[in-house]
Amino acid sequence: MKQSLNGSLYRAIILITALLAITFFISNIFSSTLFSSTSTTTAGMIGDQSVIIDVRTLEEWNAGHLATAQHLPLDQVTVSIETLVADKNQQVYLYCRSGNRSGQAKIIMDSLGYTNVTNAGGLGNASELLSIEIIQ
Q1: 96, 117, 126, 132: which one is catalytic?
Q2: Known catalytic residue: 96?
Q3: Residues 9-53 pLDDT 10s
Q4: Rg (CA), the chain
């Protein structure tokens, strides 16, 4: 009798685990296809979900920047980032001249609750990483 109960319990655990795995798999498929933002047309976006931000000075920006980037100097990140990137889970790529200021901006955004921020380094590194040309 105990062996029969143990066998039934074992089968129930396996069944529940399989159902949970299937549910997780299906929810990931639907969340990545049905609930992704495809109607956003914000400049500075890769595909429909990523924002690229140049945190250098205006003079540096005017000398050349990524074609689809938006400009937000490092000293304005704390006060203006929420108007530029409202969704704190949205993918954001930051760059500057060397990666130092974009690293500082990433720390600021992390402290504000942003969860998907990447320091893309300097302008050249960001251009290569994101496959976006530099324009003036």
Answers
A1: 96
A2: yes
A3: 767 677 566 555 555 444 444 433 333 333 233 345 445 589 999
A4: 22
Specify the pTM: 0.66
Closest CA to 45 of 90, 105, 109: 90
Superfamily of domain 45-135: Rhodanese-like domain (3.40.250.10)
Alpha carbon 60 to its chain centroid, in Å, reads: 25
- The torsion defined by the Cα of 99, 72, 87 and 135, in degrees rounded to 10, comes to -70
Answer yes or no: are the C-beta atoms of 43 and 31 closer than 8 Å: no
DSSP conformation class of 120: E
